[in-house]
Design a protein that fits this description.
This protein has 384 residues and is of the alpha/beta class. The protein has 16 helices and eleven strands. The strands form two sheets. It has a seven-stranded parallel beta sheet, with helices on both faces. A four-stranded mixed beta sheet has the order 9-8-10-11, with helices on one face. The radius of gyration is 20 Å and the shape is globular. The structure holds NADPH dihydro-nicotinamide-adenine-dinucleotide phosphate (NDP) and magnesium ion. Magnesium ion (MG) binds next to helix 7.
């Protein structure tokens, strides 16, 4: 029996993780669960999975939970989230929060030498170098990727040595606006941007998919997770989202992981690795109904998310953090209707231009750069 803490249980990854756990009750148990604002869904989940530790965004909601569940340990806020990352009784911590707010809980989980099932890619982008240093200090801790592309890369690499890997080929659906021109993107609405062709996900990542910033974040995430140079990471548009990514080896052999576009598989694999297990929760890909698998290049003139990420990644140090933080606020402002779609790129570009890179010698450096970048975007672009 493995005990799992889910940070962000009320989100898209969180609810999928609970489906994985429910289908294998004899193997997995939820020991801790965190939500931010969705108290109603959180209560349903608590009734069903009965975890011992809970965490919610506000103190007010924590008080409500304490009255309802006096026998449980209940935390709140960012400090609560840190405590949730460090629970002694957990074997696995699934980081399914969206945004750089997940960094500290991940750090705590590593210090407690847990397995981190990492969905929260923003953590690896903003703080990857710091996290990698920490993993050396705590060698029993491990990060198993949940992001479908990175799970695919990780699965494709099994049984090979690092020196045998030549290139990582990350596939991209191309997002909801694939094929559109800059002119056509000028006035797109939030509703249009939220329609993803293949995946059903949280709002932030769905917007990131439409700008291809998500793919950019994934390029940096892949570099940080697998230690592969940016020159050896490639992005390929593959609209069907069946091949989840590929690894090219030194002998030119390419191994791909393919499957239904269903996050439950990478989530479960991060729980059961190095083993595989069957489950009624997992979707099956019917190869007979597949008509074609196609590939094309990213239109970098229109969708700048990938190129900007390569730029930030190659500069390194605190620049990936700026790329991520500027994007997080830009997406928030776009969702609130305060900026236009293409201004997301403008904000990232300007924030990166203005930033003077720093060495990351502590977590404080990242926290400060994150804070300064957010402030700059709010000061210059927020309308309230
Ligand atoms: P959602 O927006 O659906 O869920 C986010 C979760 O985090 C919710 O439980 C939310 O709580 C909680 N949360 C939000 N803000 C805060 C905060 N400030 N403090 C604490 N908790 C907070 O996101 P997704 O599930 O789509 O994505 C989660 C992560 O996984 C992201 O990093 C994303 O990039 C990554 N990912 C997601 C994929 C997907 O298929 N969805 C695929 C690959 C990666 P509440 O709802 O209660 O407010
Ligand atoms: Mg992904």
């Amino acid at each position: 029996m493995k005990s799992i803490t889910i940070l962000g249980s009320t989100g898209s990854i969180g609810t999928n993780a609970l489906k994985v756990i429910e289908a294998k009750k004899e193997k997995f148990k939820v020991i801790g669960m965190s939500a931010y604002s969705n108290l109603e869904l959180f209560k349903e989940q608590i009734e069903k999975f009965n975890p011992k530790y809970l965490c919610i965004g506000s103190e007010k909601n924590a008080e409500i939970l304490k009255r309802l569940y006096p026998e449980k340990t209940i935390y709140f806020g960012d400090d609560g989230l840190k405590l949730m990352g460090a629970l002694d009784e957990a074997d696995i911590v699934l980081t399914a929060i969206s945004g750089a707010v997940g960094i500290e809980a991940t750090v705590e989980a590593i210090k407690k030498e847990k397995r981190v099932a990492l969905a929260n890619k923003e953590t690896m982008v903003a703080a990857g170098d710091y996290i990698n240093k920490l993993l050396k200090e705590y060698p029993k801790a491990e990060i198993i990727p949940v992001d479908s592309e990175h799970s695919a890369l990780f699965q494709s690499m099994q049984g090979s040595r690092k020196e045998e890997v030549k290139n990582l080929i990350i596939t991209a659906s191309g997002g909801t606006f694939r094929g559109k021109t800059l002119e056509e993107l000028k006035d797109v609405t939030v509703e249009e941007a939220l329609k993803h062709p293949n995946w059903s996900m949280g709002k932030k990542i769905t917007i990131d998919s439409s700008t291809l910033v998500n793919k950019g974040l994934e390029v940096i995430e892949a570099h940080m997770l697998f230690g592969v140079d940016y020159e050896n990471i490639e992005v390929l548009v593959h609209p069907q989202s069946i091949i989840h990514s590929m690894v090219e080896f030194v002998d030119n052999s390419i191994i791909a992981q393919i499957g239904a576009p269903d996050m439950k598989l990478p989530i479960q694999y991060a729980f059961t690795y190095p083993e595989r297990e069957g489950s009624s929760a997992l979707e099956r890909l019917n190869l007979k109904t597949l008509k074609e698998l196609t590939f094309s290049q990213v239109d970098n003139e229109v969708f700048k998310g990938v190129q900007l990420a390569f730029q930030a990644g190659k500069i390194g140090k605190t620049m990936p953090c700026v790329f991520n933080s500027a994007n997080e606020v830009a997406v928030e402002l776009f969702l609130k209707g305060q900026i236009k779609f293409l201004e997301i790129y403008e904000i990232i570009e300007k924030a990166m231009e203005l930033h003077k890179v720093k060495e990351i010698d502590s977590l404080e450096v990242i926290k400060n750069v994150d804070k300064e970048t957010r402030k700059w975007v709010y000061d210059n672009y927020a309308k309230d």
